[in-house]
Structure prediction request, 383 residues.
Amino acid sequence: MTFINSNIKFNRNELSGAFGDIGTDLPLILGMLMVSDLNIANVIIFYGVLQVITAVIYGIPMPVQPLKAVAMIVITQKISSDVIFGGGFAIGLIMLFLVLTGLLNWLNNIIPKTVVRGIQLGLGLQLCLLSLKEYIPADSTNGFILAGISFIIAIILVGNRQFPPAMFILGLGIVYTFIFRFDLIENITFGLPDFSIPEFNQKSLLTGLVVLAVPQIPLSLGNSVFASKQLVNDLFPEKKITASKIGLTYSLMNICSAFIGSIPVCHGSGGIAGHYTFGGRTGGSTFIYGIFFILTGIFFSADQAALLHIFPKPVLGVILLFEGVALMILVKDIITDKKMLFIALLVALCANGLAYGYFIGMLLGTILYYLPNKYFLKHYGKQ
Prediction:
């Protein structure tokens, strides 16, 4: 079924693809909700609204995701909501400045494709390690069995347009929850959302800038803008989506989120890969995903624990694993060029092993790219 235009379709593949990014999103969102004084209804419902708006604007599975660096800092340091809003507002203003001054397009033009591939490789590796270390082992033996069955389903059905895999994997997860975690189902509390007007001031804006925006912006430039644009070019070359357009929607989402009382968000190549891997080809997948969050916020906003256990972690881990692998294999188009592969691997290692690794990797990789080839030929031989 087509809605609005051919860029938004509703079918089983779009339904399957809708949940291709949930393994990344849901745990980070709930993690922030559990350690802060954020209003759960504001966060969940507005997050869904942004998914729907983005679906209409782009007409492809362009995701809205929680900012990963921000989320990890909030979760580990228990940042208050006013600083979260201040940080999101600062992030939005910085990105808007880069768009309006043309600096974003300039950076996009000088940062080579091999550096972007390195960013995607590094992010894919991070997602795979997170899946294997934390998600899949979450429920011990039962979790491993559940993950194993889910993995087999994914291997058999990935790419299958008639029987897209995510519906079967998530369905299996829900059945698992009813059988093994029925005590959680019994205690689910339904309730209408209780909205609140957020507050932040100059102090929270400055604190958010230093604590949240500075660590996040390099990652956002590399993954949310440049890597997303490259992946859109790979998968949807006819769309001709620019870095400026991605940066503009990124900035406006964060400025609006700060005043609505929601979390800082971004686009991301991992989300595109996840939605696409599990069947999404139009904005229909993110539209459906948005409706899921809107309904969840309306009916489950009184019970954070229930939200956390809607889908078992081992199931989310398998989806996360395939999302990561889909990102990592994009490096295949430079794998025969020794210099390009060297730079991509170096960027990926920096991203995974260093503080501010995405920024350092992006900077170092770009410098190495513009050095004469003789520096590489001397060590690796003629290509």
In short: The mean pLDDT is 87.
